[in-house]
Amino acid sequence: MCGIIAGIKKENVVHDLINCLKKLEYRGYDSAGIACFENHRIERYRSVGKVSELEKIVGSKYSNIGIAHTRWATHGMVNESNAHPHLSTRDGFSVCVIHNGIIENYKELKVLLIKQGYRFESQTDSEVLAHLLHAERKKSSSIIHALQTVREKIVGAYALVAICDKDPNTILGTKKASSLVLGVDEENKQVFLSSDPNSLSGILNQIVFLEESDIVCLEGTEFSIYNNAFNKVDRKITMLDVNNDSVSRGKYQSFMQKEIHEQPNAVAMTLENFLDENSLTAGLFGDIAKRVFGQVEQIIIIACGTSYHAGLVAKYWIEELAKIPVSVEIASEFRYRKSVIKNKTLMIGISQSGETADTLAALNLARNLGLEWIFGICNVQESTLMRICNLSFITRAGPEIGVASTKAFTTQLASLFILALTLAKTKSHISVQDERNFLTQLRHLPNAIASILHEEQNIKNWVKYFQNKQNVLFLGRGIHYPIAMEGALKLKEISYIHAEAYAAGELKHGPLALIDENMPIIAIAPNDDLVHKLKNNLEEVKARGGKLFIIADHGFELQEDTCTKIISLGDHAGFLSPILHVIPLQLLAFHVADSKGHDVDKPRNLAKSVTVE
Ligand code: M6R
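^ thats the input. predicted complex w/ 5-amino-5-deoxy-1-O-phosphono-D-mannitol below
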């Protein structure tokens, strides 16, 4: 979603700001803007569309201080007036503000500001911040005191940066429930603020994660941080763990394709710490994990989108192996439900980004309801999610740039399987021999994924059957039903083909009515206990003229014919089968979308990280 970048350096910073905006493009946006100082005055440039459009407008402008933004529309249409930065000019000076998040009381503030004579040019909630900061700057001795007052008057979620031409060497920032980090480089005398640390890779490598309500003041190339009580504080500096290679497409035509192919390595990295040993230890999930895992009586998993599907798979694993009841809930539903949570419940939040607003709100709700044990599975160590959890597991997939989640999903699954095994072990439900066998299978997993990627050409051969379709049905049973759901989500979000997933046993209860020669059906058909049941369901589809595309294992009994295509993945992989069966579905979605000429990394209307409700 929206991205913020701001910086001061001794030389021209405009070029760096544009480059950082390009690194933020993957988050999804529809317009972009930049403000900088020219001859001690604030100049602002904005454009609808790609950052490259803004780059043309900015040309070779020179400034050593600037703030820049990519906007993903929430309040107000996609147009130049609604693009950030927002400017407030009167009484001989200007204030310019960029904002991520939502100001909930913006309507009340707007009424007050209009009464004071401020004129609004946009439909956004964010513009109130520019006028409010201007009004407060007029009354205050410094911009930092003005921002402190603004912070007290606004309600909602925000990461904001601001400049004022009364304070020409200064950039201010503050944040609440939205990400903002400080980047520091003492050697080259430069300081930056960004909503996404990855955007700073290649510029500097020291990062400070701001706490809620911190105000940060960049002055010249120095910085100071003030906490909620307005006391000057030191915050820990951490090293930025990203290299430029991980945020470039390399030899691939899109990030999504690269990320699909990175899965063997991403899964290997994620499992590394666990597979060095011959037995699992709860301590790897955090200091209190052993005690918590021993006592836990119920698990609730909270997530959105693909991460939710990972949770659904985990339910099968944890209930079967560790015998602990698990419920899996969509975060945006859970957060507004009056749920009953028993003591000794472990709440697990799964999120690639760790910044998904609904997931964070649901976990905070659980904490406010008195739940002590909050477990986060996340791909970003420095995320908000990781900071609100007291137990955690970091998936080490590396930055995932494509909006469609791929390597984040398979690494989440690998982590959740390790968690299921560790819970089972702590509850004495698996033998030492079973544990060893599972660890051996996990060690083999990266290679197993790599061999499925070799099926890419066979998958590509299916593209012609889907390219021009309006609807596709995905079928699965048992633990592969969530994999069918994930396959349908992948296809719809990047190819814009309507795709639905059904538990195959539900066919007779309604969806069978949809079957005809125009409805391709993708079936996930591993050689597990349910394969015969699934085969019967597929025979019912064939009998009604349906065209079947089956992702099977060796030994699947249906034969290929004009209406039945089969790709076989090899021997059945037991518990780990979902991690393998999702890969052909990712590849199919990618190649169908690509064949339709879509921008697979940035599908229409979607953002990588959904940081607002
Ligand atoms: O960062 P998160 O895992 O919390 O994101 C959750 C969803 O927004 C995300 O998985 C989304 O569904 C993906 N675009 C799916 O490919």
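The domain at 252-453 is CATH 3.40.50.10490 (Rossmann fold).
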